[in-house]
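Write out the 3D structure for:
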Amino acid sequence: MKKPIIILTSIIILFSCNDSKKIENAEKNTIKTAFLENVKTVPAALSNQEQELILTGKVEYDPDRIISYTPLISGVIDKSYFSLGDKVQKGQPLLDIRSTELSALQMEKVSLEAEERVAARELITVQSMFDDKMLSEKELLEAKGKLKQIQAALNKINADMDVYGTDKGNGIFTVNALSSGHIVHKKASHGSTISPESDAVFTIADLSTVWVTVNVYASDLLFVREGMDVEMTTFSYPNEKFYGKINALSQVFDPDERVLKARIIMKNSDLKLKPEMSMLITLKDKTTRYTFAIPSAALIFDDNQYFVVVEESIGNFVIRNVVLQGHTGKTSYISSGLTEGEKVVVKNHLLIYTGLKEE
């Protein structure tokens, strides 16, 4: 009676083990099904690649719209009519300068003006006497020539003094603005001495047009070219975008910064763009080279390489090493490693990648 009991017990144990395995397999299948339901894929599609490049730059003056005043004679600043940042109009007085050199010119001018009056009266007398046949034509011509010589010397003095500014007398002349704009540099204060060897006393810049100078590194040369449209932003106006195009690209590297300089000419009537303001410049370019476009989130960077997980069939996944050609926004462009239509995993791909690597 003992043997049948042992056999029956073995049969019960065998059936119990089979039931446990079935339950375990069922649970695994349930987990796998639930996991696969959360896996999301997108097909690899051919795309005309759009590249995006972000460069740095800054706002600068248009050099053709700047006038700097450097003293032509030695003197002392007697009065300043402006402050740094002021807007000035053409012809507006900016500085009064007292100069002993100008005093000498003023004295010479006064002397020549007196000589001119005397010579003019003498010519009137000579002309009258010539008309009465009392003087010869030679004497008349000599009188006219004398007056012309004095007037020529006086005109020269006036022209020389006009270069310095407006004559106010007593050795003082006023320097007037030669153009309209803003004072962007000032090195002039009451009592300061100046001379032709001095640096510029002030600079006026017309800021209605400015340059945005862009730093272009050697690695970006194949991407950047003249005529490209650009989009610009600055920290000063975080919610505003500025648009322009690359007007010129230097052919010589800056020896200090090791970059080429690209130039963007911008209208600036509202004066938002100010010299030395930092800018971020975004360039976009559509090429004729076709690549596979996938969401950037699908990429896995591991061991200095890029990988994606591809679903070859339902529940069957493989790892693919891919070559990244470029990216823009949330889209990445793959030049090799995929074929058109393959399903690239974009959700739970990291878990699958880790599991496949451990196998």
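The helical segments are 2-37, 100-131, 137-164, 349-358.
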